[in-house]
Write a structure and sequence with these properties.
The structure is a homotetramer.
Chain A lengths: L12 E2 L9 E2 L7 E2 L2 E2 H5 L1 E4 H6 L22 H18 L3 E5 H4 L6 H19 L4 E6 L18 H20 L4 E5 L4 E2 L7 H21 L5 E5 L8 E2 L4 H10 L6 E6 H6 L4 H10 L3 E5 L1 E2 L10 E2 L3 H13 L8 E2 L11 H28 L1 H9 L6 H7 L5 H11 L9 H10 L2
Parallel strand pairs in A: 1-2, 5-6, 5-16, 6-7, 7-8, 8-10, 10-12, 12-13, 13-16
Antiparallel strand pairs in A: 3-4, 9-11, 14-15
Helix pairs in contact in A: 3-5, 5-6, 6-7, 10-11, 11-12
């Protein structure tokens, strides 16, 4: 393969909201300062290698649909290298300086673990070179779900040999992430869960999972990798019940096993809604538990019960996502990856660009809306005002845990029937909509 | 009101599976020994006062439908006393020696908290007398959701006066539960949650909630009440998001705020399915976290998105519920309450008995099935066998947390590609069905 | 009650998008012309009497929360008259000239049907007077679900006496709607459905339902009422399965029983999402079946499994709703009612105005977006282009039903493997977002 | 490949409920007479070729897991023949004399349609020979969803060339089904639906779909095929909205386009629950519309939002399914196919047998329960009794459509307030459970 991968596609530039050019940013202006930071520093966008370069369009009912011109139909090392070059051209044209990967989507699995490791090393060496000085991974991870050996889970497989194999694979993936200058390392528990409790010892599996993660955290220190370790909650799919169901479940697990200081969360919006929560709820839950580390800023379909991994295009949702990010003071060393894929039926190379531009612009538009919301100030004031009685002296003592039931009862007799104020939800919604 | 409340209804007796008499037990035989315990000691059934004696059949689209002969249409103290006597006749005829209550469903709320307390005292005195020596509450609780003052929550209300009022109400409810010999005290966070994050400071509300529960745990010790404190998870309804979403969320909360030793869970099956889990999953999650304290053994409709609180009639579900109970070594000092209500359209007095008999029989049938499952042994063997590699020396070391990634990698190279065994789910399901 | 009901509230005026005044329209400018019609003629807004004037804030877990100053706590005829006057002041201040009602929410039910009819007549006489020449009902309906007599359904009750009673009630409700100049009459099958198939003869109930609706259509003609008859689909709640599940189910029913020319649909957005469809899907399904008659423009919560009847504030949704309306050439003689209620916790009188303004503005903003979309033209072109092969000669013959399998097979051999174009979903979403 | 495919597996025999042998029937006794028919004639079981012989265990997150000894890793004609022989050995050992297939799962797709047809002919010739005199297809169908050409649908593709290709493929599939003695022909609208309405002309697509089906019905007559044409409803997956959403939607479509006499429905239980209905509801809806033709007797997971296609093992569900079948007087010329697959993690050859035995036994147990229910008679009596007022003279006239609103009103005044009877749901559930 010679020359450009995307010959007809120019560098994507910011042209502002009035532009009709699909290959331009209307809202994302990387160097523009918003709320005291350049947009690119709020967003910290990365491209997900697996969806963008390994997504085939296959689904449970159909064969692959993508016929990218640079693909030769093989899973060879040569093909892996060519794909990696396409990735870096894509990053450059999109103006994104971070990427994410699973070990097995960048390099082919070999016949043995050693061979797989060697393949990985070869590709990683090339990636390192292509990265240059400006580009590096937002995060890396190990793919522990595709190969049949992991069909019952990896760290939670009932088979000790699988646990062992998985540990070796994660060890290597952490090492290459470190080598490439990755800022985080992610655990998505692909098949860490169960299909039926009838054949499962859930307690034992969870114990194994904790032991595995502890060993990973130990290894991180051993090799001097300073990146954040992230767990990505998902409620189900492929398993009926994934152990990292949602932010709260994962927090409970981390607390139970003494892992709370070692890990943060990578919250995915589509996973959030599959678990019965809004994305904003999951982000806020992670944030107030000190666990908000990274965001998979995709979206699902509210009427669909599986992970559709769509690029986020909802303005309201994007505004709420960015609200959590701003409250969190940003996400660094984490950031955004899309974990979003082209629809199966979108088969033009240019669709890859349109989709990413759309996702980036939507989040950028969300950030601009948050700035308007903060500048306006009315909504924050409405919320603060609702809790003002707790800012009183007695309220502060309650919050400090200094007031016992006897004192509270005495106070209740004294205060008589409370006069409860309106929750003003419709007003809050009106104010929120006014910045969209 | 003179004489019997249920004149046509005899004491319900065990007549065995072949009986066609709706007013008999076909599976529940209180004194029969199963798995080393009398059935009644496994089950520890209680009747829920609120559904059985205060359920009106009203729903969001319709007026009350029940016209019980003993009701006079008032919410007077006299009516409350009459109702309490009906309760004890019901318990006796059903052969159940435990009951559960909310403060406000047994005694009318007064114009002031003092008046409400006085009303409660009067009814509780009568209940104490009617209890005699054999009957007592499985648990009591405070109703912190019906009165408009609690519309934004009780312990999580943004209004300090409401927090204060709620504390006084819980204090009193704990005291009367203790006085009546109650074995547990339940917190169902009726409106502890939010309707929209736009007007809510979730972090501050959760902090308040923890402070409140800590004060409750302190008060328990102060008054010498030895009952278990239980939190009842529910994902949503009435609020869009309830803070005690499910067992894992509640465990996370308890761990975060250092409350883990003070509280257990009251798991409700209908709440389980509303949160996207099977009831068995929630029970097992509670159990392996050492938190399984009590069960609301009702059921919902798998196609319906709200709490229907039906009496459990599914044999398979009941068998799984009892499997968790047996694994837990029973539930004492907790037990079963039904938290189930007659359908709105079931308006005959006898329907109250039929529903309870059906619910009790279904769980009893479940227990008998568990005994068969254990006696058969095949399923347990299938599960044990799946994990046997971890019983090896290396497996044990892994489980002990003694094996680091370097050692695991070495072992992985040594072991080569794992040969993963079939999960045998269909066989497990076949064995399970064979005991139903 | 003397003087104004809403003394602090001015007539709501259009102030444009930059206004920060909650009591102004930012997008709805009644007389402004959009796409060839004045906004008010596209929207045909009406106020729903039941939610706005009879909504109490009660829910299955809590007592009423609203304490409107004009309410005296009774359900008297005098109170009904006062409320009706409040309704007309509300309409006037909001600048809306249509309203909707259930018979029983405007006038109290009496002890007998005759008394109920007399009460209704008295209130309707007042309403007629208050309407003057500019105001009239968008539609009326009979409330056939609140009273316990309807607990098993009305037209589908297993009890003939209930069917009979319901018919009498609908007869009267149609007559008063006609008398008031109502433009439509709605059937919402409150409890026309089942709780369990175990006790239900679904076929017989559906036959009864059809017979009932045929009699209603006959009566309409008999009394010279020219309004449209509308059925409002809802999938479930209060029953487990409502017979008018969704637009397609209702269309099937109408076709089976030969009622297709007599009825149209009143599509509700919240009901749409509860049935697993987007609101836009339901509107389009109704439209292409020639059945789109009226819209309940509310919204639910995508994570909540029951009818929350919120005012629509989602811009994207509103744009899709208005797209269907524009394609339909408007809704007349139907229009919009909100079927939306204040949140239980919104207890200020002014919240009633804020909520309605928000709902009206959101739809108006949607209409403005549709105008932009149409002016831009790109999206329509994208769609048209996808089907262009069917505009060929052979394609037209296929569409005319003139091409048999043999000819198609021959053509297929001739054409060889089709080259299928990209679906361009991401581009379509980008274009759509650009007008929001 | 020489000799047996399943060397260790004996012919599966009926051994009765006490047998512990997984490779025996406990409830299905083919020649035993139940309710006046041999069990096999009620059940009319068939094996689904695609799941049983082409199911690989692959899922969206993982590679194939099945390594059947007879597979050589190719998709050759030789492999197709070997597989077909395995199919017939499987049928024989299981004691099932019907099978179902998609054209493309029995024979490999060629480079052209002609080549595909030739491949199909070669395999079908072998199948015809292997069938002998006792075996034949319950139904055949064309696979119109796997190949990328069908990514936007087949009959509803926006591309005329795809419509044409699909017609040619269906023509051939109908012909080979006829040749093999198939009793039915199924249309499962794999991708007949949409991913987003933004790029879709739903009305035009539905028109095309109807035209296509009409041409299919015409072709059926032309070739003298007397089998029933069946449409299989599914709400979504792979598309966001499938046009054949559920039984009612499909009935509406058939009625709108005048196809109602030409097609029946193939109801799948897992599709039923995905569409928000119970399987029993869908079966009854099909039945009372005269459309119940065939059943895909699988099951989903009530907590999972996608099609899991599990073998049915729920006794209660199976009893309800068989209740509909018995009410329908059986399913002939339709029957049961399982459309169920081994779990991905079930990788032993014997699991194929266990799964089928389990599914067959569960339905057989359901049939036995229905016989008990009918013999008992109490439940049917309870239902009949609920509607008895309609058996009166006035009730019969209502049912005959002879009573107008005026007469009904007069009658209502006469009858006064109806006294509505209890719905007895709990009793109905108790009776139902007693036969399980």
């Amino acid at each position: 393969w010679d020359g450009e991968f995307f010959p007809g596609i120019p560098k994507i530039n910011y042209e502002g909201p009035k532009s009709k050019n699909p290959l331009s940013f209307k809202w994302y202006n990387a160097e523009e300062e918003i709320l005291g930071k350049e947009m690119k520093d709020w967003m910290r966008f990365s491209v997900a290698f697996w969806h963008t370069f390994r997504g085939t369009g296959g689904d449970p009912f159909g064969a692959p649909t993508k016929v990218w011109p640079w693909e030769d139909g093989t899973n060879s090392l040569d093909m892996a290298k060519r794909r990696m070059r396409a990735n870096f051209e894509f990053l450059e044209k999109l103006g994104v300086d971070k990427w994410c990967f699973h070990d097995r989507d960048i390099a082919p699995e070999g016949n043995t673990l050693k061979e797989s490791n060697a393949n990985l090393d070869e590709i990683v060496t090339l990636a390192k070179e292509l990265q240059g000085t400006k580009i590096h991974p937002l995060w890396g991870t190990a793919q522990l779900f595709f190969n049949p050996r992991y069909m019952h889970g990896a760290a939670t497989s009932p088979d000790m040999a699988v646990y062992t194999y998985a540990a070796a694979q994660v060890k290597k993936a952490m090492e290459v992430t470190h080598y490439l200058g990755g800022e985080n390392y992610v655990f998505w528990g692909g098949r860490e869960g169960y299909q039926t409790l009838l054949n499962t010892d859930m307690e034992r599996e969870l114990d194994h999972y904790a032991t595995f993660l502890q060993a990973a955290a130990d290894w991180k220190k051993k090799i001097g990798f300073n990146g954040t370790l992230l767990i990505e909650p998902k409620p189900q799919e492929p398993t009926k019940h994934q152990y990292d169901w949602d932010a709260a479940t994962t927090a409970s697990f981390l607390r139970k096993y003494g892992l709370i200081g070692e890990f943060k969360l990578n919250v995915e919006c589509n996973h959030a809604t599959l678990s019965g929560h809004s994305c904003h709820h999951e982000l806020e839950t992670a944030r107030i538990n000190g666990l908000l580390g990274n965001i998979d800023a995709n979206t699902g379909d509210p009427q669909v019960g599986w992970d559709t991994d769509e690029f986020l295009t909802d303005i309201s949702e994007a505004t709420l996502v960015m609200l959590s990010v701003v409250r969190n003071g940003g996400l660094a060393p984490g950031g955004f990856n899309f974990d979003a894929k082209l629809r199966r039926e979108s088969t033009d190379v240019v669709d890859l660009f349109i989709a990413h531009i759309s996702g980036m612009d939507t989040l950028a538009r969300g950030l601009r809306n948050v700035a308007k919301l903060i500048e306006d100030g009315t909504l924050a004031e409405l919320v603060r005002n609702r809790y003002k009685t707790f800012d009183s002296e007695f309220g502060s003592q309650i919050e400090a845990g200094k007031v016992d039931f006897e004192t509270l009862e005495k106070k209740a007799f004294e205060l008589g029937e409370p006069r409860v104020a309106s929750g003003k939800q419709e007003l809050a919604e009106m104010i929120f909509q006014s910045v969209l």
